[in-house]
Design brief:
The chain is an alpha+beta fold. It contains eleven helices and five strands, in the order H-H-H-H-H-H-H-H-H-E-H-E-E-H-E-E. The protein folds into three domains: about 1-160, no CATH class; about 190-230, no CATH class; about 235-364, 2-Layer Sandwich (Heat Shock Protein 90). Helix 3 runs antiparallel to helix 4 and helix 10 (about 270-290) packs antiparallel against helix 11 (about 330-340). The two termini are about 40 Å apart.
């Protein structure tokens, strides 16, 4: 609507430029009025373009100056009807701006009525015929009506589009939750159900150490699954990626205690980077900590901008001195660099004999 009303005003100003340069070159007041109209229009529409909407103050100033003051200023003295015609045209675009800028219908009606009164008086002072006056008043009223109708239509279409977008997002979220449930069902079939079936049929000895370790890993997975369902299904993309990192480490024999708290959905590249960095942090626990147990905490803070997400990987193993330790490829490239490239950050806190704490943040 800013563009449409701006182009409408530009057409009136173009007519004014032609009228003054071709027929009123000897009238200084006409040049002053044209300059005021141009400067005022640039100020009003430039401000609206920068803000994204018409402010009430600039719109009022436009109506008063362009729609009210200039017609009387140009028509002062012995001006003819033809000499004031170009400035009277500006009343139509002034009424269109008012129809878009003012939210109350009473204000719009009042502005249009005021403009009609001013222009009718101004034209009568020049001795204009009734048909000329009526045509000008019709232009003012019709401009306001058309602008109001177009503005209402655009807002209505925007509301319908927002509603359709919301329905699509809801449907996509529903499909994502269904896909996650199917993935969990498949995982349960391939792990917990397979283990229970093997024990029930006598093919696996419940007291055997490998079977006990497998049961411990699958019990941890079930606890996380129940927690996620209780917390209201964390975002499937992000939560699933991090859960995949945890289960990957568990498949290598590491016992992982994982907790998820208000996990937000973040961009796919960031979720992938967090999952890969988490995998490398857990691999480091396996390779260097001397312990078989790690703790992963995933926490979202929806109140911050960008839905920040923090993943913490902690072990109570051997630890190391970060100042003396030369960073290997894993920490340098697979953790720090990966998070930095995705717009996140990583911090490593450790001390000999005190274990290690790796914190991954997105965004940084």
């Amino acid at each position: 609507m800013i563009l449409a009303t701006g182009l409408y005003r530009a057409s009136h100003l173009a007519a004014g430029v032609v009228a003054v340069t071709q027929h009123q070159r000897g009238r200084p007041l006409a040049w002053v009025a044209l300059g005021v109209a141009l400067a005022g229009s640039v100020a009003v529409f430039g401000t609206a373009r920068a803000r994204g909407w018409f402010g009430t103050g600039p719109a009022v100033a436009d109506v008063v100056v362009v729609g009210g003051v200039l017609p009387f200023a140009v028509g002062a003295g012995d001006a003819t009807t033809a000499e004031v015609a170009w400035v009277m045209m500006l009343g139509g675009s002034a009424s269109a701006v008012a129809a878009v800028a003012f939210t109350r219908w009473a204000a719009v009606v009042g502005v249009v009525a005021g403009l009609c009164l001013v222009h009718a008086v101004g034209y009568r002072l020049t001795g204009a015929e009734v048909g000329v006056v009526a045509g000008n008043l019709n232009s003012i009223v019709s401009s306001a009506v058309l602008a109001a109708v177009f503005w209402w239509y655009l807002r209505r279409q925007g509301s319908l589009l927002d509603a359709a977008t919301a329905r699509v997002l809801t449907a996509e979220a529903r499909r994502a939750r269904l896909a996650e449930r199917i993935a969990h069902h498949r995982a349960l079939h391939d792990t917990v159900l397979a283990t229970l079936t093997a024990i029930a049929s006598g093919r696996a000895e419940p007291g055997a150490e490998p079977v006990r370790e497998r049961c411990a890993r699958e019990a941890a997975y079930l606890r996380r699954l129940v927690q996620q369902q209780t917390d209201g299904d964390p975002a499937p993309g992000t939560a699933a990626a991090l859960e995949g990192a945890v289960r990957s480490a568990e498949s290598l024999g590491l016992r992982v205690g994982a907790q998820y708290h208000a996990v937000p959905e973040i961009p796919a590249h960031a979720a992938s980077a967090l999952a890969d960095a988490t995998t490398e942090a857990l691999n480091n626990v396996l390779r260097h900590s001397g312990t078989s147990h790690a703790y992963v905490t995933v926490t979202g803070r929806p109140e911050g901008e960008g839905l920040p997400l923090v993943v913490t990987v902690v072990d109570r193993g051997a630890g190391f001195d970060p100042e003396a330790e030369v960073k290997g490829f894993g920490l340098r490239c697979s953790v720090h660099a990966r998070m930095r490239e995705a717009g996140g950050a990583a911090d490593v806190d450790s001390a000999p004999g005190e274990g290690t704490r790796v914190e991954l943040r997105w965004p940084a």
